[in-house]
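We close this part of the discussion by returning to an individual protein. Part of our work consisted of pairing the sequence of a single chain with a tokenised description of its backbone. The amino acid sequence and the backbone structure tokens for this protein are reproduced below.
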Amino acid sequence: MKKYDALYIFVGIAKDDVLNANLEKALAEVTRVGGNVLSTESLGLRPFARPMSKKDKGVYVKVRMELDPAKVDELVNRYALVEEVFRVQILAVDERREAKIAAERQARAERQAKKEAAAAAAVTTED
């Protein structure tokens, strides 16, 4: 199993409950081909750079999933049959890049904590 990030675009959705129903239907396809959904994040309603199929905006949803690499093409082909999914893009997650970003984020947090502790110590010595 390999990790993937998928970006789904849903159009013509006015209510959150309709979006949730359509998202559940789309994510059911992931489990149908033997994958696991790890996380979902709604990016909200965004305009397209140019109209596609006479549509000018859509709701973007980012999904992190685990899936067998041999099943990715099958999953993309299944989405061609699901009317609710306007577009989907599936990209493999680079584990080394993810680890490097996490390490940089941790180091930045540690530096910030040291800076705040030094500032707090300077304030207490002045009083």
